[in-house]
Amino acid sequence: MKKILNLLVCCFALWAPQQAAAQKLSGSELQQFQKTEDSLIISADSMYRAYMYEERIDYCHKFVKQLSALLKRENSFSYPFERLGKKIHILYPEDKSFRIFNWTVEYKIAGFRYYGAVQKSEGPVFPLLDMSEKMEDNLLYKPLSNKNWFGCEYYRILTQKGANGQPLYFVFGSNHNGNGYSVKTMDLLGFSGNQVTFGGNYFNTNNRQAQRFMLEYQKGSQVSLNLDSAKNMIIYDRLISEVNQPQRRNTLVPSGQVDGLRWVNFQWQTVEDVVPIMKLKNGQAPVNGVIPNQ
To answer: Residue 241: CB partners within 8 Å, gap ≥ 6?
Structure first.
């Protein structure tokens, strides 16, 4: 673990190419990027499919070096990496001001390492150093950075406007390294000096201020945390313990009820039961979806 963290720091720390926003690549530049992307795809396939776990990490080292060299090139932000995007996650916010490169490697049975880098449209590229296995519990109230990142596999970036009209970037991700439990999180991504920051006082859930929103649940359970555009809110599964011990995260599963987070006064606030469910008394049964009067 320490070896690859050092590699990420060495490769990414020097990433400060001179970028010009949305410049069109020349024909020769495009060919060079395409050729290197071919090599990246081969390395990505190998780090996912190698039979020996140690080999997967070795191929990941190679992939990091190749990607870092490519992103050092001038105008690299203008290259879309469409084919590589089928192998790893490459996510942009609405304003295209940055992008996240993100992938995972299974390094042992049911053990994952999370990797990533954030490239700004004009400026440096920041490595994301996964420290999730070393972090203490209760991360709801702790600011984090790219140097102590709660490693995630990201699947969405959502932009909201702050009080001063500034864009706020909320990232959605999942982590499956817990002892019998997984985590889904919604976090604020920002920039401060020479680092990427994670967390912010924009989460007022159950009348408590937090830095981020997290769902911890039994590994293997299907738990949702995502935007519902029709409802204009975040929806997520309410969790319940199978053994009536909610402090045991590996026993938490969806209850069937769905709650939400709504953006109100520049904060995410809890809304309960955003999807109505039919509650029946003993002896009742719905007829054509309607509970008959008793």
So the answer is: 248, 251, 252, 253
